[in-house]
Structure formats: structure tokens, C-alpha cells
Amino acid sequence: MNVLHPALNVSDMDRTLDFYENLLDLERTRETELDGQRMVFVGGDDGAEIQFLAVDEPQDPAGFDHLAIAVDDVETTIEEAETEWDSTVVMEPQVIGGDVRLAFITDPEGYHVELIEELA
Questions:
Q1: Exposure of 71 by Cβ count < 10 A (0-12 exposed, 13-18 middle, 19+ buried)?
Q2: CA separation (Å) from 12 to 4, 9, 65, 77?
Q3: Where are the alpha helices (DSSP H) in 1-120?
């Protein structure tokens, strides 16, 4: 078996896609509609995807902890996220094990996104 994707409910699809495509450099891989609900997938180079499901009412991200995304530079990504998407830093950048820098921010829907930068 393989894990294919997590699916997240979002109330503002365009802003969410802007965040993941422009800040985190993920690419839209496919878009469809099922029973009137818009679904958009984004992914990176490794084939893994995130599915966003359009909903009318915003929901708390109950039962979901975070997404982890590899980035080239944690600090630069945080600065842009705060400036362009009003993201909040949930955990300031820190180095773990000497070879990884990580931090947590929020996306436009309030989901936590872990930014991971390989230092080695």
C-alpha cells in the first residue's frame, strides 16, 4: 500500500492555492468536481499530493496536526508567509540534530505547516 494524499477542507480555495503554489512552490497537479464540490490537488517533485476540498463554512482543523513541506530557506519562507499571507509563526525556527532547520507557520485556513530545510 501507498499513502496517496491528505485531504483538507478549505473555505477560500484561491487564497489557499496561492499560498501553496506561490510560497511553497507546489504545483497544481489536477482539479476536478464531484457532486458539486471543487477539489484541487497540489504536489511536489516526489509525486506526493495534498487535496483541497472547497467547503462553504470554515472549519477548525480538528483531528489534523500539520503538513510538512521541504523548503530551501526557512527564514525567507516565513518572512514571505507573514507579509503576503498574514501567516502566524507557531514555532520559531530551530536546528534539530545539526542538519535540519524547521519552523511551524499557519496557512490561510489556520492549518499548521511545518517548514523543513535540509542544512547538510
A1: buried
A2: 23, 9, 20, 21
A3: 13-18, 74-85
Listed in order, strand segments (DSSP E) in 59-106 are 66-70, 89-96, 100-106
Tens digits of residue pLDDT in 53-93 = 999 876 666 567 789 999 999 999 999 999 999 999 999 99
CA–CA distance, 60 with 53 (Å, rounded to integer): 14
Residues 6+ apart with CB under 8 A from 14: none
**Cα 22 from Cα 36, distance rounded (Å):** 27
Instruction: Kindly report the pTM of this predicted structure.
Output: 0.82
Please state whether beta strands 49-54 and 7-10 pair in parallel, antiparallel, or not at all (unpaired): parallel
Spatial distance between the Cα atoms of 33 and 43, rounded to a whole number of angstroms: 18
